[in-house]
Amino acid sequence: MKNLIKPFVVVAALIAASAASASTVIVGPGTPTPVSANKVSTADISIGNAVSVTETLLGTDTAEFTFTALERLRVSTIALAGTDANNGTELAKVRYALNGTPVTPFPLIVPNGQSASASGFIPSFNLDLGSSFTIFWDLVAPAGTPIGITASFNTTAVPVPAALPLLVGGVALLGAVARKKRS
User: Fold this and answer.
1) Residue 112's beta-bridge partner residues?
2) Strand 63-69 versus strand 39-45 pairing type
3) What is the pLDDT of residues 22-56, one digit of tens each?
4) Which structural domains are found in the chain, ordered by start?
5) Of 71, 91, 142, 155, which residue is 20 to 30 A from 84 by alpha carbon distance?
6) Pick from 174, 179, 175: which is nearest to 6 by CA?
7) What letters, b where the CB count within 10 A reaches 16 and e where it falls short, cover 69-78?
8) For the purposes of burial, counting CB atoms within 10 Å of the CB of 45, is it exposed (0-12), middle (13-18) or buried (19 or more)?
9) Are the C-beta atoms of 78 and 65 separated by less than 8 Å?
10) Residues 51-56: contacts with CB within 8 Å, 24+ apart?
């Protein structure tokens, strides 16, 4: 009995390690729109795409950028950028969010004479075929001058979890040991 328990413990440990290293975030369709955006951009994405979407906000504009996966893929870290011609005053009014109500301000606003630029990011995640995600943009106060906003990212194939080759090797080794014991 002891000889049977040990291989099962090894396999269970390998499976647990494989699952722990996968860290997949799945964003499903049907996420409610937190704001009624008046500027909407949509795009289908697949592996190998370099995506960049830009919009201009003015007054009380809101925007949403929605992307739908045509295959299982990984979205790289999403770089967010903004520009204004009012020394950063307008950029301080911008809020953004991934699949939720925009509450996050740009963490970095750099004035440059009369203009300013801002940057932020959204961490990478995986998407299944047909799943989508939306970046929502809103202003906490009306903008007096135009604000340029951009979201950019790349898509790649979903990486194999690091422990998967170990799992396959461990199962093959257990099979070889069992076969040797039988002969």
Assistant:
1) 115
2) parallel
3) 222 333 344 444 556 889 999 999 999 999 999 99
4) 2-164 (2.60.120)
5) 155
6) 174
7) beebbbbeeb
8) buried
9) no
10) 51/151, 51/152, 51/153, 51/154, 51/155, 52/150, 52/151, 52/152, 53/150, 53/151, 53/152, 54/148, 54/149, 54/150, 55/137, 55/148, 55/149, 55/150, 56/146, 56/147, 56/148, 56/149
CA distance 26 to 34: 19
What value does the CA radius of gyration of the chain take, rounded to a whole number of Å? 23
Instruction: Report the alpha-carbon angle 121-29-33, nearest 5.
Output: 65
pTM across the whole model: 0.70
pLDDT tens-place string over residues 71-129: 999 999 999 999 999 889 999 999 999 999 999 999 999 999 889 999 999 999 999 99
Q: What's the distance, CA 100 to chain centroid?
A: 13
- Count CB neighbours of 13 within 10 A: 14
The tokens of 176 are what? 């070889």
